[in-house]
Queue: 4 jobs
Job 1
Amino acid sequence: MGPLDLQEREVTWGVRHLIMGPPEDIWQGSQDSATAYTYTLGKRSWAEWWPSEAECGGDVGLAKRCAQLAAFISALMEKGCLS
């Protein structure tokens, strides 16, 4: 399962997605909230389907994708966003 082209596909309500984009699409929040960020969707944004725990546990074919997402979460929690 590859990235979703936001121009060709709809992101379905009730289905989890990881939406990513380039660093220039991240806007720093107000001075009152230095840790608040706004993420905009630009022409280089993309979405990845993020299977639920039930989907991961119920489909052997999703095991690799679920493991990759778990590793991604772990890296973000340990190191933060590197961009």
Note: The helical segments are 53-58, 63-79.
Job 2
Amino acid sequence: MEVIIIRINLFSVMGEPWWKVLFKMLLASTVPLSIFIRLYFFMRPPLFSTYEVLPENLVIRYRKSEKRIRWEQVKEVKFSWLSPRFLGGFTLILSTGTKWRFFLALHHSHKILEAVYRQQPALISEARLQKYTAMSHLVDVSWQRLREKLRRWPRWMLKYLAVPAAVSVIYDFYIWRSQGQVPTLEQGMGLFLAAFSVVFLVGFICNSIEEKVVIRQLRLAMAAAAGQMPTRQKQFESKVEGALTIVFFLVLLVLFYLGFSLIY
């Protein structure tokens, strides 16, 4: 994982020559550009390729190119811990050292694993294969839940923007009352970005837990129904979301209180 922090100090560049400011802006712009290039060349092909599972090999077609993976070439299978909505899936590691990643978003991606299991059953346990197959059948439900959450964008704005802004204002007010000085714009922005990072991390963890709990309940229901797609239990999903929302705010309260105590 790469963590990239871009910090722009407006006051430090105001007195510098224009060419130096332009150079710094161009240098900073290479960071998002490099991310876009990586996404375009490494993420776009797998998402827009077609896959054909044959008895002897897997055929991957992207535009005019075609690649084949023989099942006997696979020496290891690694599963991702990410949920379907975060592009979880698995990786096939070949004897040549080449790695091929397959996302759960790929429709019926479990058929690739089933083909590997038929050729090399020692690489995947039957229980792990059954679990992934159930997840593959439920990936459409996971994306449907994500779309429903995105429609409630005011709640997301409240969580990820209003909460960090409120924390920043409270801290700034305390600095003003205790030290008798008005915090600078740079201090205020720093507090907001720090609070936003904490809120985003806690929200990501809570959202992942919620997704795993809901999908697990659906997977158990599907197993009880002999593989038939179960009906979503909206009441159960609401209870899980409500409980984790409470946990979300309690964790933030504890973290911000501890941070406030340590800093001030």
Note: Residues 142-263 form one domain.
Job 3
Amino acid sequence: MATAKSLFRQHHGLSFVDACIVASMHDTDIDYLYAFDDDFDRIDDITRLETATNPSDPH
């Protein structure tokens, strides 16, 4: 389990607040995030969505 502190140190340009969000996502098995902040694109196992696309919708 990655901590916010280690994520902050590993991903240059990622704010500590964003690192806390990612750590929380890892803890709760959340893979998708709606955000306009492209800093989340630095995290390989997080998918950032910008539109009203539902990633669980089979269409």
Note: The chain has two helices and two strands.
Job 4
Amino acid sequence: MFSLTIICGFSFDAASQSKLPESSIKTVYIVPTSHYDFGFVEPPDLVRERAARHIDEVIRVAETNPNFRWTIESVWQINEWLKRQKSPTSVLPKDNAKIARLMKLIKSGQIALSTSWGSMHTDFMGAEELNRICY
């Protein structure tokens, strides 16, 4: 066990602080995100497995929260997920209707698919690919 002690050597007088001007921002949205650099943080096989399991988790959360939105950023992630539907490595291993569940969420707009195969990298994408990724 350890303890943490913080000693502050300054005082704060809220009454003497000037008020900030009112902001036009009334709502702040917290957006969950993930990004998989293929083989950057972990070996490619581990990244593939993590990405596939992540889609299972996205399906679960989207089905329990109708306001949840997600974009699957790379086609390779869907490809890996589809490969693993025959194996019991997923978060939802015995759900034979998982592909239909994902398609329903895509059609409803809760889950979106990117049009790029992998991460956007300027060495691999020209102007045409960068433009087409937006629609």
Note: Residues 41-132 form a domain with the Methyltransferase, Methionine Synthase (B12-binding Domains); Chain A, domain 1 fold (CATH 1.10.1240.90).
